[in-house]
Amino acid sequence: MRRLGIAVKIAASFLGFGAVILSFGFVIGRSAGIHIFGTNQFVVPVGGFLVWCAFALLFARFVGQRLSTPINHLSRWAGNKTEIIPNRDLARKDEIGVLARTLAEMQGKIDAEHAALQEKVATLESIRRIDRAALSSSSRSEIFDKVLQTAMELVPSLFAFIVERDPDGGAFEITASRPGAAVPGVTIPKGIILDDNIPPSLLIRFEDNFELTLNRLGSEGTAFFMRSLTGFDAGSLVFTNLPFEVSGKYFGSLILVREQGGRPLDQIRPLADQAILAIKHLETRIESEQNWYAVVMSLVRAIDAKSKWTSGHSERVANLAVAVGDRLMMDDHELTDLRISAMLHDIGKIGVPESILDKPEKLTREEMAVIREHPAIGAGIVEKVPSYEKVRSAILYHHERWDGTGYPEGLRGESIPLNARIIALADVYDAITDERPYRHGMAMGEAYDFINRGAGTLFDASLSRLFLETMEKIPGSGSSREPSELQ
User: Fold this and answer.
1) Could you give the CA distance from residue 469 to residue 44 in angstroms, rounded to a whole number?
2) 360 — phi, psi (to 5°)?
């Protein structure tokens, strides 16, 4: 009906103006025709028509501007959302006003849906980062630290920490914590929180998702946080609890202390769910790797036992290598990788016949080719274990030499992985100081001289010096024979 009304108004306006213009046209045309042509038979209608056209154009321009201005406003707004629909267009009572209000409402809905979608994408990205942490982490603490970092990025907070419930009850243990940007340098110390310091009404709620203001935690709980949050009002801060469950049983919680507002609980909840899945995945992987390692170690001992000359060789090499790694200030994870690499460095010899391993004479070229396959065979055995990448490279390259004369790839210098260089020294040292079917073991002094002569050619010179210094601190690290006793 509104569209019909505006159409009638425009049509009536044109007819009214046309009638006026036509009357003026007859008058003007008659006057002009008498003076110019001497007759007004054709001049009157022609003159009137021209004058009517002129007025019609002016009127069309006026009406067009009035109609096009709000349309242009809406067009610019649709193309550039920084433009604002003028209030006068929103307040119009005609079709333009209806269109402006409809577009504004649609845009509001689109913006809200876009914001919600972005929040979901951010949550999914956070979950993906926790998944990656589960694949690359070797301990629960590493995963917890990644969970806290991801939670702080998704939900800016003053504190984020993880508590684990004591299996026997009576207390929580803070196992990981992280401060927010608003309180840099402030940490929640790891330790035990006794149930006696938590309000009983709150204690029974830790198995559920909940939020409450900090000042409702009880005097002890509130004071625990507010000691580090000077300048903040406990009534304006929110304590958010996101529980973990393992096999349907409460395990602990991800806890955030943040200012009111921000993401609702249902958008944060997936972080806690994914964290516990990551922990389960890690524990399953560690258990699987431990089982695998136990099986492989049985093979290693079986290989060492194949020959009385190599019994205990792998364990001795591992002990020497770890002693050097400790001098290099490797962390526990690096030392574990080094020990496993050294223990498994000769696992590829499982495919080498005993007749070659125990042969007292010099090996033939064909026999040496068989021996030289064992690093690649060993690397192939461990390559399916995701966390053993460094172990694999150490096994594969422990027979490479500093000057590039080693095998299997002829690597040289620092292109040889560090763990492989350490194992090379420990492997050679144990081999030359131990008895073999084709020679006697060297005395410690001779072995030291051999290592010194090989520094810079066979071995990394810097590591060689450190290795010998380390050997001097290990009782019984070489043969007790003197050089004169050797044949």
Assistant:
1) 123
2) -80, -20
